[in-house]
Amino acid sequence: MSVANIDLDSYLIPSAPDHGGVVAPDQSHKRSRPGASETEIQRHYDIGNDFYRRWLGETMAYSAALWSPDRPDATLEEAQRNKVKYHVDQALSRGARRVLDCGCGWGAILEELSQVRRVPECTGITLSSAQVDWIAAQDWPGVQPRLESWQSHEPAESYDAIIACGVLEHAADPTQTADERIATYRHFFERCHRWSRCGARVSLQFIAHGAIGEAARARVASLTQQIFPGTAIPRLQEVLCAAEDLFHVAVVHNHARDYARTCHIWRARLRENERDVVGRWGSELYAQYCKYLMACEAGFTMNNLALYRMTVVRNRAKAAM
Questions:
Q1: What are the tens digits of pLDDT across the range 235-248?
Q2: In CATH, what is the architecture of 31-314?
Q3: Hey, where are the domains in the chain?
Q4: Residues 197, 206, 234, 240, Cα dihedral to 10°
Q5: C-alpha torsion 14→277→265→136, nearest 10
């Protein structure tokens, strides 16, 4: 099926299984903060490292890869390493000794910081215990994975650089108004300002709504809720407004086609492993992820979704907390 012919409504998932992955919103308690709860994050990312390894590949990078114009034929693994190198290059300054990877996933960026760039202190924070265990088992010098949220993180010293891939999508709540979402993103940038030294750079990567109407935006949000409950996709202008005065924008790119290509390859690999995945995790989970990745590919191809890579630089202004 061509992604150009997809009716997004047909890819909305009617029910959520109870074995993790595609989950219903956590309604066990009133939310103490906006965004996905620890339970919702863990139910998605802690299905099992083996499940994600089947289709993410050896880098275990669960975000868009980056293909360079001079290497359009690069493999997914090469493009993922190129993405990691891009963010590290954007964030690091000469002599950087302390770096935070906020939303560190399975540690691809931490590995680059420790093994290639030889940064002495590399901290990664995530709400997934499976990811913390995975990183800890690698025993990379100077790397400290922590099971905590960005709202609760309190470093002992300032960071020289911060990298945050896929954090803003999980920060806000789908019930929030635009002003409330901006306030949530503002809180994130206030925290980054507080954690970092003057002039420090923050390299961000996040999915955002494209140039679409409210009806299409609602369909995208509905699909998102069925895979990542408790989260809200931002708009670029909301993020820019939230960072104002605290950081100034140095670089911003929309690489939506990179994410479309990444999702296409992920889905192909998932289908190659159909027998194993269905045997271990069930046909329902397999079908849901195939549909989800197909719909995401379509969203990025048709510009319903954007993939922003943005670098901001810390201003001197003191952030109010």
A1: 999 999 999 999 99
A2: 3-Layer(aba) Sandwich (3.40)
A3: 31-314
A4: 40
A5: 110
